[in-house]
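Suppose you are handed only these lines of text.
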Amino acid sequence: AKRQGRNHLCFYNRTLEHHQRVDVHLRNQFQQAIDQERLQLFYQPIVHLASGNIVGVEALMRWQLNDGSFIAPDKFIPMAEATGQIIPASQWAFSRACEDLQRMREKHPDLRVAVNLSALQFHRANFFDSILDTVASYGLSNNSIELELTETILMDDSKHAVALIEKFRDAGFTMAIDDFGTGFSSLSYLKQLPVSKLKIDRAFIQEVCQKSSDEAIVRGILAMARQLDIAVVAEGIETAEQAVRLTELGCEFGQGYFFAKPKPLDELLDDLT
Ligand code: C2E
Ligand code: CA
Ligand code: CA
Ligand code: CA
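From them, the structure of the protein bound to calcium ion can be written out as follows.
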């Protein structure tokens, strides 16, 4: 737990430091993948539940080895955060996402792309300007971009983080909290964050139709989000039953294998026709 400022923001459930032993071979391989532009972005649709329409896509990084196998993001993202390689990898990913969004928008003019941000990247000087420059250089407007944040972004310097989130929001970006429900201490905490969207973690969706406690949590999050005028995306929807239930509960957006798995741009473009 950590306290900061008057508001006593508390964080549970998370170790503050990555005590990660970095596999040197993996790190070197990842550096090559960055240098040779062999990283990829996959896109997973985000749908408006009541209509089934695709409203956006989340960009998810993929790293494929020469033998064709994929290394899981849960493995290489933490490593890249520990080594700092997440910075160049994220810069590449953000530019690629903007470039790809231009192509998607030829088929779906108001589609938006959601990008995951890491804490290291977020707290770097010039981060705001570099994002703005990149978006402008692709001729996109800021409101076509959603930035997904996790609570690790608020751990290091929450005052700075809140101010920066506000700055992005005022510039037109949609600021979203990712994995909601897993790390945040209290609902009141959300009130202090200038975000306009939250994504309910898959952990609460998985058994939403079986466990009344999970349904109660989802109901609670939805009621609170409504009060605060925050849009909600349910993550990890895998069955029709879950999609129906979440729609009934009043959840507006959803994402998950039931709708589509993350896929390369070309396959996504086929879906958009
Ligand atoms: P996340 O941001 O919470 O992304 C959602 C993850 O859930 C993705 O895993 C996605 O493939 C997976 N998923 C989506 N629908 C379902 C479903 O119905 N069932 C199940 N079981 N899983 C589903 P992925 O692509 O392996 O990424 C894992 C994490 O790695 C992401 O979690 C995110 O925290 C991180 N990550 C991925 N790409 C990037 C990136 O470009 N930058 C940063 N900073 N982090 C990234
Ligand atoms: Ca995410
Ligand atoms: Ca998530
Ligand atoms: Ca996650």
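What can we learn from it? Residues 44, 60-61, 72-74, 77, 90, 93, 116-118, 178-179, 202, 236-238, 255-257, 262 surround C2E (ligand 1) (CB under 6 Å). Strands lie at 39-48, 54-64, 70-71, 112-116, 145-149, 174-180, 197-200, 231-234, 253-254.
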